From TrEMBL:
Component of the Nup107-160 subcomplex of the nuclear pore complex (NPC). The Nup107-160 subcomplex is required for the assembly of a functional NPC. The Nup107-160 subcomplex is also required for normal kinetochore microtubule attachment, mitotic progression and chromosome segregation. It is found in: Chromosome, Centromere, Kinetochore; Nucleus, Nuclear pore complex. It comes from Hipposideros armiger (Great Himalayan leaf-nosed bat). WD repeats lie at residues 120-162. This is Nucleoporin Nup37. The lineage of its organism: Eukaryota, Metazoa, Chordata, Craniata, Vertebrata.
Length: 326
């Protein structure tokens, strides 16, 4: 008997291919719908989704594809620009991707005639994380297996370059103080850099490897979370450079960690993709057990809705959405 591994997702949307990465737009985009981007083997799809949790006349989920961008190579990462606006005339869609060919592409579209992209080259190995500066959207930071963190202008020139001690796994920008950048390395060290002074200002230690993913809590920037080995770990950077809490979470290795953007006590983790059913969990800092456990076939990616306690992950020809109670 074939078990439907997606039966416990609250909502799902069918896609043409495996979904390697999915990202809700974390910025206010000037429209009631929520922008979402997902990437497969050679394309990026931009769509909007509205949920019944936010609009009473919607049954479940209302999803609409706005545009599909041909990418030509597997999409590994997607980051939204704060310049994206649906209420401007013409609208502006702006995002960047990292890809299997070790290049960064920056896409700009007005959803009509203008569809452009620029290619940034410089990394010599796979890119594991990338992010726009959240205020102006005029810079992009990326981290790679090539042991570097690089800052790029929108023209593609490198404006800063930090040498790391091991592969760079995650990069996050401080939401207010845009000279502060967080870089997580596979060897278990998380460093904070002052970009203007181009130097490290603080570091955290997980004391276990491999650290696969880390995330800065944008609701409370004293909190940092990560997954390393089989565990999740949480730091309070005002107290100690060592984790305040840690728990075993995925027995075959933890892969992704993301804080909720709506609630500083909620976060989600996933196991490695490519297993028959990759486990996905939502945790609440006040609860000893996960508040929600789901699974999705293959796929990857993990992203929180901007205002709802709702998580998206990529699956096999599907986007899967889980809603949890606050």
């Amino acid at each position: 008997m074939k078990q439907d591994a997606t039966s416990n997702a609250t909502y799902s949307v069918d896609c043409e291919d495996y979904v390697h990465v999915v990202e809700f737009n974390p910025f206010e985009s000037g429209d009631s719908g929520n922008l979402i981007a997902y990437g497969g083997n050679n394309y990026v799809v931009i769509g909007t989704c509205t949920f019944q949790e936010e609009e009473a006349d919607v049954e479940g989920i209302k999803y609409r594809t706005l545009r599909t961008f041909h990418h030509g190579v597997r999409v590994d990462g997607i980051a939204w620009s704060p310049e994206t606006r649906l209420d401007s005339l013409p609208p502006v869609i702006k995002f960047c991707t990292s890809a299997g060919d070790m290049k960064i592409r920056v896409f700009t579209s007005d959803l009509q005639d203008k569809n452009e992209y620029k290619v940034f080259e410089g990394h010599s190995d796979f890119i594991n994380g990338l992010v726009f500066d959240p205020k102006e959207g005029q810079s992009i930071a990326s981290v790679s297996d090539d042991h570097t963190c690089r800052i790029w202008s929108l023209e593609g020139t490198q404006t800063a370059h930090f040498v790391l001690h091991s592969p760079g796994m995650s990069v996050c920008w401080h939401p207010e103080e845009t000279f502060k950048l967080m870089v997580a390395e596979k060897n278990g060290t998380i460093r904070f850099y002052d970009i203007s002074a181009q130097q490290a200002i603080l570091s955290l230690e997980s004391e276990q490897m491999p650290l696969m993913s880390a995330h800065w809590c944008l609701k409370n920037t004293f909190k940092v979370g990560a997954v390393a080995g089989n565990d999740w770990l949480i730091w309070d950077i005002t107290r100690s450079s060592y984790p305040r809490e840690k728990r075993p979470v995925h027995t075959d290795g933890a892969y992704l960690f993301r804080w909720s953007t709506a609630n500083e006590h909620l976060f989600a983790t996933t196991g490695y993709p490519g297993k028959m059913a990759s486990q996905f969990q939502i945790h609440h800092l006040g609860h000893p057990q996960p508040v929600l456990t789901g699974s999705g076939t293959v796929g990857s990616g993990l992203s929180w809705h901007r205002t709802l306690p709702l998580c998206a992950i990529g699956g096999d020809h599907k986007l899967l959405f889980w809603v949890t109670e606050m």
